[in-house]
Every structure is written in C-alpha cells, then in structure tokens.
C-alpha cells in the first residue's frame, strides 16, 4: 500500500518532468542516485555501455553518476578481444574499465564463451575437438588474466540453452559436447580464483523449460564441485509478452542451491509508439523486478542494458519496438526511473 503510494508520487514527478516543470538539474542531482539507493540494500544498480557512445559527454555524465556498476555491451566479446588467433586487443574493454574505475564503479565482464560475435578465424574453420579446446582455454585464460582484479564477475558462458531446455548447438557444443561449460568455468577459475563466475541467458526469468535446464545444470555442476557462483538472468522483457510472475520464486530456487543471481541486461520494450499507459505499465514492471531482486538475499544487483533509449539495441533488432529503458532519447528520466527509485526506497 505504502509502496503503491510512493509509486504514484514517482509517476507524478515523471509527469512534471515530462511537462517541463522539473526542478532544476542541481536540485535533481542532490537526490540519492539509483546506486546510492541500491547500496542501502547491499545491491548494485548498473548500466551497460558501449565504446562508440563514450564521446557523448551528457550521456557520460549520467553514466558516471547514477550507477555503481558497468557492463561493456560489446568490448569484451571474442570478436573484439581476439580478432586474430592469438592476437589480443584490449582497447575497447580497457576503455570501459578505466572509465568505470574513474567513477568507482565495478565492472561485470561480458562474455567469454558465446556463439555470437565470434571472430571470422574461429567460425570459418572446421575444428578438431583437441584444437578447439586449446583455443577456448587460451581465450578464456588470457582474457580472465588480463582483467584479473578489474572485473568482479564474468559471464563465462552466455546463452547455452534453447527455449525448450535442450543445449544450443553452438560450435562449442557440437565440437566439444556439453562438458565445455564445466571446462570453461574451471579454466576461468584457474586464471582468477577470486572472480565470480556466471552462466547468463535470456528468457530464464520465469520458471519454465529453459530456466529448469539451468537449475538442473547448476545443481549438477555444484555437486561436481565445478566453480560456478551465479546465474545471470538477462531480463530482456517485452510488454506484449507479459510479466514473468515467477521471477522471485525462480531467483529463490537458485539461491537455495548456494548461487548468486543477478538481473544482468534488463530492458522492457514495447510496440511503438510509446503511450502514457504503456510507459506506466513499463514503470510498474521495472518496480516489480526491482522488488523481486530485493526480496531474494542472493540477488546481488541489477544492470540495465544501457540506461537510455538513445543507445538501446532494441530498435535495430525488433522492428517497430523500442522505448525500453528508464531514460528517454533526450536523457530525461521516464516514469520507469521514478518507479525504480521508489522500489529501492
Ligand atoms: O562494429 C560494427 C561496425 O563496424 C559497423 O559499422 C556497424 C554497422 O551496423 O556494426 C557494428 O557492429 C554492431 C555491434 O553491435 C557493435 O556495435 C553489430 O552490427 C550489432 O549487431 C551488435 O549488436 C550487439 C548485439 O549484442 C549482438 O548480438 C549489441 O550492441 C549488444 O548490445 C548486444 O548485446 C547482447 C548481449 O551481448 C547478450 N544478450 C543479448 C544482448 C542484446 O542482443
């Protein structure tokens, strides 16, 4: 009840901002940030970012002040970090790590093993299991070593399962079998015994075939003593598909396995145009997922997949959809922003 009232106040503030009646920027700056509020619960509140955006000073100002955690959207992926076999390039990832350090923000490493955005030298060749194992091990260990002490967590394997809970037939699965996941975790752990190691995927927010596959695998890996610390739920939601009402229960069952969880790539897209009603519903969803994370002790933090609609991946990937983030394209907070604040209060 109290919470709902707060949300109404937040929504009103949003209307005032939208109507141009916002308090001056200085007054807004004095408010606690999302990061400040999340820290009171022992959580972080982060944003993804990407290198091309870092020339945008107003964008960088909000990125550096409102959040206490950063994830590089592309800069640490295999195509960026090992563009030729055995030739490593840390330029993009380092730029983001350095920016984050300057603002005392922690960094999630994303991602070591993924079927997408692989370099051509890797995908254009038929590999023997022996050779691919060696290539994978070297990639993981070189990158984890490079970022040792600079990232607090890694998405070691990203998107390993299909929607029905079967293994995705990636180059790694097809060549090495399902054991590549345990191997990847062990290799990463050898290279940095302190960093938290995650498996990360989308459409695993609700309890269902795909999240069940993670639950089963996580249980097996823990039983075998494989170094797995957490499950990342990407949380790319869409208003037209409904809210994952079992999110909190789902987070809790992973906690009970002794695992951390995190909402790692949150956005909530909608079919455009964005109406007041849709933005209000989106705000409620952002508040609800924040509540779900706060309700489960081992849900360690929330990362939005960039913070502004200006740099969202959605419009390029889903035609006619967008407006997925808590700040609009002019970097103004939307109702979702105020709803998150209220949920964190
Ligand atoms: O680097 C080229 C550039 O040279 C070229 O001019 C430009 C023209 O389109 O494309 C650039 O590559 C783009 C790349 O991002 C870097 O900006 C690709 O086209 C584009 O497809 C790629 O999109 C990324 C996407 O992963 C690829 O699947 C998004 O930025 C990134 O936000 C997104 O992130 C993923 C997570 O890693 C995993 N979970 C899903 C999430 C959303 O797709």
Task: Report what the structure shows.
This protein has 345 residues and is α/β, with parallel strands linked by helices. It has two domains: 1-30; 32-344, Alpha-Beta Barrel (TIM Barrel). The chain contains 15 helices and ten strands. The chain has helices spanning 2-18, 25-30, 34-39, 57-66, 78-81, 91-102, 120-123, 129-146, 171-176, 180-191, 209-223, 247-256, 276-295, 314-317, 335-344, and strands spanning 44-49, 69-72, 106-113, 153-158, 196-201, 230-233, 236-238, 260-271, 299-304, 321-322. It has an eight-stranded parallel barrel, surrounded by five helices. Helix 1 runs antiparallel to helix 15, helix 8 (129-146) runs parallel beside helix 10 and helix 13 (276-295) runs parallel beside helix 15. The longest helix is centred in the C-terminal third of the chain and has 20 residues, at 276-295. It is globular. Mean pLDDT is 94; it is low at 1-27.
């Amino acid at each position: 009840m109290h919470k709902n009232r707060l949300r109404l106040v937040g929504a009103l503030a949003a209307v005032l901002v939208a109507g141009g009646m916002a308090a001056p920027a200085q007054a807004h700056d004095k408010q606690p940030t999302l990061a400040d509020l999340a820290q009171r619960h022992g959580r972080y509140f982060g944003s993804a970012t990407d290198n091309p955006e870092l020339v945008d000073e107003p964008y960088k100002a909000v990125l550096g002040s409102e959040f206490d955690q950063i994830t590089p959207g592309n800069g640490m992926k295999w195509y960026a970090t090992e563009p030729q076999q055995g030739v490593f390039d840390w330029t993009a990832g380092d730029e983001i790590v350095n920016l984050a350090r300057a603002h005392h923000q922690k960094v999630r490493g994303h991602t070591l093993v993924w079927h997408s955005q692989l370099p051509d030298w890797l995908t254009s060749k038929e590999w023997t299991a022996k050779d691919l194992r060696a290539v994978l091990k070297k990639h993981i260990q070189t990158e984890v070593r490079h970022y040792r002490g600079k990232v607090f967590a890694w998405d070691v394997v990203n998107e390993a399962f299909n929607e029905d809970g079967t293994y995705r037939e990636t180059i790694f699965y097809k060549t090495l079998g399902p054991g590549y996941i345990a191997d990847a975790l062990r290799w990463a752990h050898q290279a940095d015994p302190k960093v938290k190691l995650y498996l990360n995927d989308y459409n695993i927010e609700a309890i269902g075939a795909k999240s069940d596959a993670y639950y089963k695998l996580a249980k097996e890996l823990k039983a075998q003593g494989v170094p797995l610390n957490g499950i990342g739920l990407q949380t790319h939601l869409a208003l037209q598909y409904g809210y994952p009402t079992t999110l909190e229960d789902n987070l809790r069952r992973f906690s009970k396995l002794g695992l951390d969880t995190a909402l790692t790539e949150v956005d909530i897209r909608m079919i455009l145009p964005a109406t007041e009603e849709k933005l209000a519903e989106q705000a409620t969803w952002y508040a609800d997922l924040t509540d779900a994370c706060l309700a489960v002790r081992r849900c360690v933090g929330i990362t939005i997949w960039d913070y502004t609609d200006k740099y969202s991946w959605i419009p390029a990937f889903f035609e006619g959809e967008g407006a997925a983030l808590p700040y609009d394209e002019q970097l103004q907070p939307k109702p979702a922003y105020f709803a998150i604040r209220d949920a964190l209060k």
